[in-house]
Amino acid sequence: MLTSALYYPYIQISDNLWLRRAILYWDRISPIVPWEVEKEIPQKHVSRELKSYGVLDFINPEDILEGQEGQKLSESFLKIIDSKEFTLKIGPPEKRRYDCKIHRDKFADGLLDKLRDKDLFKEGGPWQFLETNTGRVYMGFLASYLANHLRLEPITDSTDYQKGFLQSHLTPSDKSTTVSASLVLEELLPAPKEAVPVKKLLKFKEKHERELLAFRRVTRDTIESIRPLTEERQREKIESVKDEIKEQCLVLSRKLKENRIETFLNCLLVPFKISMSDVGAIGATTISVPIGATVLGVHAGIKIVREVFRGQARRHSILETTPYTYVFNVRKKLA
Fold this sequence. Notes:
- The chain is an alpha+beta fold.
- It has a domain at 170-321.
- The protein has 13 helices and twelve strands.
- β4 (121-124) and β5 form a beta hairpin.
- α8 crosses α9 and α11 runs antiparallel to α12.
- The protein starts with a strand and ends in a 14-residue tail after the last helix.
């Protein structure tokens, strides 16, 4: 956990606040970049700088989507979009929005032809403009597939694509529901400000590897301990571990300050469980345990948030086989 990340949905990572958080907490970041686009990335772009430092790799999807594996991915994705529930959701072609821009080399051979027959994208040269829901689910589907194949942790900076990622693990159905549970560290995570140079963060990581590993360990252990518990027992468990999580966040905050790295408090959301439920038997719920430390923020706390999705969880989805693999680092406080 918090080791090597597969970044999606965009090809070029922006040189912004989110990137500095990702650099600090993950060992390596790998965006999905087709060969054709990789050649066009400017030499001075931050992704090339990070690649030269050994903390970023480009994932060329063509190498993996060719042949039988790509066909399996396409077939599984078509089962989602061919469902009655998905067709009703996107509506007729004249009412659809085509605003998800995806490069053609992120699709296996033949898939775009089938999507064209369904009026699910508009031609744009090497770029295809997919229908909104189709594009978000597909990028989640692709990220999940590549992450499983390469043993990486999918990570995004978009709440819209996060929902698409979760929906990509479901077969749409009105007769069943699926519950996703997530651990949220709210206003606890010390995050470097945008003005902090990338090289300075990498030096900090090397110098304070022990503290970063301790934070990683306590977060992983917390998820492992609450994952099999009932809702009531989960509340008791996070009450018992909140001081340890708070302590590790305080240690990181202090070390960053000592190294003159300006920070602000951020959130971390980690989906760790996906399971079935009877229709209507459960609604979205939140378990919240406040931290109550002024140095961490007025609203600092730990939450377990449950979201309910219509549909049946696919067998062997990444959240089923590796429940805490997908990690989402958000920009702002969660509702």
